[in-house]
Amino acid sequence: MAPSLQLILILTLSSHLMVYEGNAATCSNCFLHSQAVYYPNSDQHGTATGACGFGKFGAKINNGYVSAASSLFRGGIGCGACYQVRCTNGNYCSDKGVNVVITDQGSGPGEFILSRKAFGRMGETGHDAKALLALGVVDIEYKRIPCSYPNKNIIVKIDEHSDYPYYLAFMLWNQQGMKDITAVQLCEPKRFVCKLLSRSYGAVWATTSPPTGALAIRMLLSDDSGDEKWVAAANNLPKHWKAGGTYDTGVQVNDQ
Q1: DSSP label at 237?
Q2: Which residues of 80-106 are buried (b: 16+ CB within 10 A; e: fewer)?
Q3: What is the pLDDT of residue 28?
Q4: Beta carbons of 115 and 61 less than 8 angstroms apart
Q5: pTM, to two decimals
Q6: Gene3D superfamilies, from UniProt (predicted)?
Q7: Residue 198: which residues within 8 A CB-CB, separation 6 or more?
Q8: Which of 11, 86, 153, 166 is 20 to 30 A off residue 69, Cα-Cα?
């Protein structure tokens, strides 16, 4: 082979390799590989307790297709995020797998500890689902997907341990899209005063001595690219909010 032609081929192959590696490094829609297990002592749905603080809502959200996560928990930031998870055993597994919501933290052989319902849903048939459950641990591939709650606004759920007017803790339900809620502010609209809340644990935001009066909530939505946006609830929390109460924010956030 002529030296000049050989050099051209080497440069061409190097160029294709650089493009491939660049696409792999920046691919936000690629499947990653791990393993999954399931909660052995739970019912078909998720659990009513968990590190995210969702309570009973965490067991029935997404019709029970939920999971605990290891590194994807991210100190609570990952609570409420949605993932497509599919097993890779060609004898039993469907191509679509199952879409789950992160509601808890856990560690196992891999990234996910699925509800029994979600684990079995990865199977092609009911018989396959039983075979997967018998295996207990399966190789999987997963990727993050947008959460979707059709015709539902983000809901503020006041934690039962809140103590009006001295201590306020709450979580946000029905978060759509693929962005994370990384900060929350409570604002007193009449005085134009806002207070940045702390993440108590999981998806629970809390503050002592909350502002008085009707309260406006602002949420900072962030993604891996560094894009951030503050979103304000359309509806305020009432002046005399109640522990255990739920309040509709009047907004949906569908950022992908």
Answers
A1: B
A2: bbbbebbbeeeebbeeebbbbbbbbbb
A3: 67
A4: no
A5: 0.87
A6: Expansin, cellulose-binding-like domain, RlpA-like domain
A7: 205, 206, 207
A8: 153
